[in-house]
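User: Please look over both lines:
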Amino acid sequence: MPKANKKKLATAQAPFETSPKLTTSFINADPILGYKIRVLIHDFLKESEEPDAQRRIDSTTEVNYISGPYFDQEQAKQVREATVDVELQISTSAATQDNHEGDGNDERLSRVRISGLNVEEAIETVMNGFLDERRASGDARPCGPHDLAPMYAALFGIQLLELQSPRFLRRLRRSGV
C-alpha cells in the first residue's frame, strides 16, 4: 500500500508526466513549463540589457539552453523530448541579415519540416541550416535576440509580444524562474 501512495504523490507533483507524448503546444499551455519557456525566450531577448537575464543564460549547462536554472532535470528532459506539433517557417536570410546587408535574398523563406520531431531534433535541424549559412560569414554563433528567441517562440507557439505583458513581467520580477 505505501508504494501506491508513493506513486500517487509523484503523479500529483508532476501531472504533466501522465501524458504519454508531450507536445510543444501542451508545454506552451502548461502553467509551469509554459512560463519557464517564456522566461528563457525573454532572457534571449534581454540578456544584453538585464543582468538577471544574462546571469541565467550564462548558467545554463546545455548547448540548447534547456537546463537549469530554467528547468530541473526532469522538466528539461520532458521539454527536449516533446513532439513539435506546429509548422515552422524559418527565414534563412533574416537571421543573417545583419551580417549580409544587401545580398538581395532577404525575403527568401525556407520551410523546415520539423513537425513530428522532438524539440531537441527540431532545434538541431533548424540550427544546422542556420550554421551552414553563418559559417560562410566567419561567425557561426547564433544571436539570442535575432536567432534563438524567434525560433524557440515558434517551436512552442508563443507570440513574442506575450513577453512584454505587464502581467508576465511582474511575475518574472516577483518570482524569477
Observations:
- The chain has one domain: 22-170.
- Confidence is low (pLDDT under 50) at residues 1-19, 92-110.
- The radius of gyration is 18 Å.
